[in-house]
Amino acid sequence: MYTVCRLYGFVAMDGLKAIVIGAGIGGLTTGIALRQAGYEVEIHDRVRDLRPIGSGISLWSNGVKVLNRLGLGQKLAAIGGNMNYMEYRHLSGDLLNHISLQPLVEEVGQRPYPVARRDLQNVLLETFESAGGKLTLGAKCIGILEGFSNITAKFEDGSTSTGDLLVAADGVRSLLRQYIVGEAIEPQYAGYVNWNGLVPISTDLGPADMWSIYVGEHKRASMMPVAGDRFYFFFDVPLPRGTVNDVANYKTELRKHFQGWTEPVQLLIDRLEPETVARVEIHDVGPISKMVKGRVALLGDAAHATCPDLGQGGCQAIEDGWVLANYLTSTTLSVPDALRRYESDRKVRTTEIVNKARNRAETIHGKDPEVTQKWYDQLAKESPLDVTKAIAKIISGGPLH
Ligand SMILES: Cc1cc2nc3c(=O)[nH]c(=O)nc-3n(C[C@H](O)[C@H](O)[C@H](O)COP(=O)(O)OP(=O)(O)OC[C@H]3O[C@@H](n4cnc5c(N)ncnc54)[C@H](O)[C@@H]3O)c2cc1C
Q1: Which of 85, 151, 235, 370 is the most exposed place for a label (fewest CB within 10 A)?
Q2: 301 close to ligand 1 (CB < 6 Angstrom)
Q3: What's the CATH architecture for 2-187+284-396?
Q4: CA angle, corner 304, sides to 298 and 232, nearest 5?
Q5: Atom of ligand 1 nearest to the CA of 278
Q6: Is 314 in the pocket of ligand 1 (CB under 6 A)?
Q7: Residue 313: beta bridge partners?
Q8: What percent of the chain has pLDDT over 90?
């Protein structure tokens, strides 16, 4: 039986139950969208304590628009950093390009928000739970049983849960991906390591409303404002896979890799607190051939982990959740039919983003040093409007134009 959901105008299928595996950005956004559409929603995550990996994330306007549409606009504005400008500088500190983000905001109709991951997770979690969603932690999904008219998730502790559809939002090392794609797909190392964390904003690091990016030697050091007078910072360094990850060495490593770089970069290394820093070898996934099988849909990094060089991986997971909920609530043939529509919509968009982000990662991190040098040269010459237009083009490819 179909009813109109009072708050959001969706056509909802009463009594249908969605099982979501993974309580990351993708799983939680999907949980909220489906809950608001009238689904019973269970999210299961293997961890006992839900803590985001990494410190900050830049939510570009395409992701923000979806969260606005889910009713989170004010909460997001409260946790979002006031980022009005971007600046590229050479490792010496020399200015390469100063870019106002105002033309971008005017073109796409929404500010981007850099946010602390913990803040974003709190907002998503609180919204999901207050909408009546159920979260179970310490629940590692180890398999799926597809019935004729339902789907069952099996968990490590022997328990099971049965529903009308299952969303596999289990991240870059997804266990459930193989069930859908039919073969094991190993994430691909992007060739560089990223350190990220939060430090208090101070003017000797950079202006409080600026995303500052220092480039050189195929590396990056970057800071952007988030709420609470903090900069979310990151460092990128091309390194072979499997270098030692020892928190006691972070400062020494960074001092070595960024030796001779300008003063704010040195100050940033001095001020960071290693115990709160994440050190990640960057991987991506795909493009993959399939995103759905029967009543099971892959979503977010499980389907298309994306090099962070476009700042779009999390935004794509958010878009996925929205699009999936839309097909499930606007088409009425069957759950597998709605999932097929989700797949054909999202494969095009996410394939383009994964490829673009990998390309950009290679350009930034010196896969071909000549290409990287050309990029440095171009940064100094590029018109700021061309930069914001290129970002707007990516944003405008999202489901909410
Ligand atoms: C350094 C870095 C910077 C980034 N910067 C940006 C940015 O600026 N902007 C942007 O949009 N994106 C960015 N991203 C990408 C973004 O972080 C990811 O795309 C996003 O977090 C993916 O969310 P997800 O929900 O798909 O997966 P995840 O966040 O990985 O969540 C998966 C969840 O599934 C759970 N899980 C896994 N297996 C199981 C199982 N078998 N059973 C139960 N639970 C399971 C995990 O515990 C986890 O909680 C960045 C990524 C990195 C690494």
Answers
A1: 370
A2: yes
A3: 3-Layer(bba) Sandwich (3.50)
A4: 120
A5: 1
A6: yes
A7: none
A8: 95
Q: What is the pLDDT of residues 267-311, one digit of tens each?
A: 999 999 999 999 999 999 989 999 999 999 999 999 999 999 999
Q: Looking at the CA of residue 142, tell me the nearest atom of ligand 1.
A: 41
Residue 232 Cα to ligand 1 middle (Å): 17
Residue 151 CB-density burial (10 A; 0-12 exposed, 13-18 middle, 19+ buried): buried
3-state secondary structure of 56: strand
In angstroms, the Cα distances linking 189 to 172, 200, 228, 305, 361 are 12, 31, 33, 11, 11
- The vertex-43 CA angle with 78 and 60, nearest 5°, equals 35
End-to-end distance of the chain based on CA atoms, in angstroms?
31
CA dist., res. 150 & res. 110, Å (int): 39
Domain residue spans of the chain: 2-187+284-396
Distance (angstroms) between ligand 1 centre and the Cα of 305 equals 8
Ligand 1 contacts CB of residue 311 (under 6 A): yes
pTM of the model: 0.96
Find the 54 Cα to ligand 1 centroid distance in Å. 9
Residue 179, number of CB atoms within 10 A of its CB: 17
Burial 205-238 (b: 16+ CB within 10 A, else e): bbeeebbbbbbbebbbbbbbbbbeebbbbbbbbb
Distance 171 CA to ligand 1 centre (A): 5
